């Protein structure tokens, strides 16, 4: 074969598109119909706080961020998870779950249990080696998390709105720096 045949191969290089990054969008709460605050702790835990996870060669914060990133890329069309709290001296962590569809009140428990038990457990259990954090009872049940949740509802957002007419008081101050009462009829 002629060695000069592929001399111009660099013109034909096309970098592969990372499939994981396709469709990734930034989180905007307005795009989601419902939000929940979930508190997760290890079922049948062998650790008393996250600092103890180092004994099992697990960096809890890094593991959680890795799993959440992969989850958000994979399920961006339906759900978004965000880490809200992880204290190395506590034995739980807090996540925000946002769903693009509204959960019916009677199905909230089932849907959140499905997300935690089916969609989150395996990446933590196998992918991050968290099976080391649970005792024998947890391994037999193949259960990793205990989860509690509450629907996140922002009540009365009126105080967040800015009335455009009164955005700046400078328009009401005269040139001689006297403030006058202005009536709106």
What would you note in describing this structure?
The structure is a single chain. With 185 residues, this protein is an alpha+beta fold. It has a domain at 29-154: 2-Layer Sandwich (Alpha-Beta Plaits), CATH 3.30.70. It has helices spanning 60-74, 108-127, 136-141; strands spanning 34-42, 79-86, 92-99, 145-151. Strands 2-3-1-4 form a four-stranded antiparallel beta sheet, covered by helices on one side. β2 (79-86) and β3 (92-99) form a beta hairpin. α1 (60-74) crosses α2 (108-127). The longest helix has 20 residues, at 108-127. The chain is extended and about 65 Å long. Residues 19-23 and 158-185 have low confidence and may be disordered.
Task: Record the SSE blueprint.
Blueprint: E1 34-42, H1 60-74, E2 79-86, E3 92-99, H2 108-127, H3 136-141, E4 145-151
Antiparallel strand pairs: 1-3, 1-4, 2-3
Helix pairs in contact: 1-2
Strand line-up across the major sheet: 2-3-1-4
Structural class: alpha+beta
Q: Tally the helices.
A: 3
Order of helices and strands: EHEEHHE
Low-pLDDT residue spans: 19-23, 158-185
**What is the CATH top level name of the domain at 29-154?**
Alpha Beta
Q: List how many beta strands DSSP finds.
A: 4
CA(first)-CA(last) distance:
91 Å
Overall radius of gyration: 26 Å
CATH fold field value of the domain at 29-154: Alpha-Beta Plaits
Shape: extended
**CATH architectural designation of the domain at 29-154:** 2-Layer Sandwich
- Quote the beta fraction: 15-25%
Largest sheet: 4 strands, antiparallel
What is the arithmetic mean of pLDDT?
A: 78
Q: Fraction of residues in helices?
A: 10-25%
């Amino acid at each position: 074969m002629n060695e000069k045949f592929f001399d111009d191969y660099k013109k034909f290089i096309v970098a592969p598109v990372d499939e994981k990054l396709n469709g990734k969008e930034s989180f905007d709460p307005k795009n989601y119909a419902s939000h929940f605050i979930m508190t997760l702790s290890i079922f049948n835990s062998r650790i008393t706080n996250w600092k103890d996870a180092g004994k099992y060669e697990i960096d809890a914060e890094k593991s959680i961020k890795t799993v959440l990133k992969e989850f958000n890329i994979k399920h961006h069309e339906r759900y978004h998870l965000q880490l809200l709290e992880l204290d190395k001296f506590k034995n739980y962590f807090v996540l925000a779950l946002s769903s693009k569809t509204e959960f019916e009140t009677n199905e909230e428990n089932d849907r959140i249990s499905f997300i935690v038990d089916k969609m989150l457990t395996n990446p933590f259990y196998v992918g991050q080696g968290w099976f080391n954090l649970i005792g024998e009872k947890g391994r037999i049940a193949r259960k990793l998390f205990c989860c509690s949740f509450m629907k996140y509802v922002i009540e009365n957002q009126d105080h967040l709105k800015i009335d455009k007419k009164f955005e700046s008081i400078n328009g009401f101050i005269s040139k001689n720096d006297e403030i006058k009462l202005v009536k709106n009829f």
